[in-house]
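re: ur msg from earlier - yeah i can do the heme C complex, just paste it... oh wait u already did. ok heres what im feeding in:
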Amino acid sequence: MIKFGMGVLAGSLLFAATAVAAPQDVLSFGKGRPVPGGDVGAGKNIYNAVCWACHESDLSGYKGPPLTGKSFYKIWRGRKADELADLIRNRMPQDDPGWLTDKSAHDLVAYIVTFANRPESLAGTGK
Ligand code: HEC
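and the outut:
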């Protein structure tokens, strides 16, 4: 009984430790600016159909800059998630912009944020 209790305690301590990631290791839009809702699976599908060609399937960057990792998080830390969605909707895909809907842009933001902060939850989403 006591052993079981310790196991649960150790488990929650481990969870607490991993849940508190250093600020430079997460994509955060700052306090009081929660990420607006978006369909992560739909965002993943558009990403893998279009965006990967320039940003790479693991978001690490190719012809376009990386959309994950410390340098990207630094650019966006404290800015508005809507700003990122607007950039995507107005300027991407860079060789053929203008056709993404507002919803798709927000779905892409949801995918980019999930890829950064909770990649393990992506298994089984999208096509
Ligand atoms: C033809 C190549 C190409 C495609 C396809 C493309 N991008 Fe880009 N992307 C770029 C380039 C080049 C830049 C940097 C110059 C600029 O911002 O216009 C960029 C910049 C970005 C940025 C800003 C990155 C930063 O550092 O802040 C985001 C976000 C982005 N792209 C998202 C997307 C998404 C989402 C898609 C798919 C809908 C996409 N891109 C498709 C080439 C591309």
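cool cool. The chain has five helices and no strands. ping me if u need the other ligands too
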